[in-house]
Amino acid sequence: MAGATVEIDTKEVFSLSNMLSGMELSSEDRSELLSELGVEAESQTQERFDTKVAPDGIKWNGIAEATRAYYAKRHPGARPPLVVSGSLRDTIESQKKGSWEVLVGATKEYAAVHQYGFKKRNIPARPFLGVSLDDETGLAAITRDFIRRRTR
Predict the structure, then answer these.
(1) If we measure between CA atoms, which residue out of 67, 45, 54, 63 comes closest to residue 126?
(2) Which of 20, 44, 71, 149 is deepest in the core (most CB within 10 A)?
(3) How many CB atoms lie within 10 A of CB 147?
């Protein structure tokens, strides 16, 4: 996957993963769980483009006046950072990586510029990839629901 990716190893999800490791799950079951987690993580990541808040809870920097003037000529109407066309948001996707991992990232090459910033161009980082505490809770809930469905 080109662009930017962040791999997160969270304690609660890892703990649930250990519980799942003890279960006899078919590869289809694992694929189903990873797919559910991937879809949720994609949604959580895409939501950051609406809230303009990084996974660590810090609000994104606004658009510089020079940048605002530049984009006003090309994209009428005031647009928040990273959503001028929506094309970066639309490339957020998840992929299975191994038998117990999901990778979530953006496929646009310039995603890393927005994720990490670009000092030479005075572009601040506006992190959109990662897992917030709320995201972690949502992912853990999906995993718990999955376990409950399999242990009934």
Answers:
(1) 54
(2) 44
(3) 16
Q: What is the pLDDT along the chain (152 residues), one digit of tens a residue?
A: 555 555 555 566 666 666 666 667 788 888 999 999 999 999 999 999 999 999 999 999 988 888 878 877 877 776 666 677 788 999 999 999 888 889 999 999 999 999 999 999 999 999 999 999 999 999 999 988 998 887 76
Length of the chain: 152
Distances (CA, A) of 112 to 54, 90, 106, 148: 14, 15, 9, 38
The per-residue b/e assignment along 62-84, b for 16 or more CB within 10 angstroms, e otherwise, is ebeeeeeeebeeeeeeeeebbee
Q: What values do phi and psi take at 77, rounded to 5?
A: 90, 150
The torsion angle over the Cα atoms of residues 90, 108, 135 and 47, rounded to 10 degrees, is -40
Alpha-carbon gap, residue 152 to 27, rounded angstroms: 19
Total-model pTM: 0.79
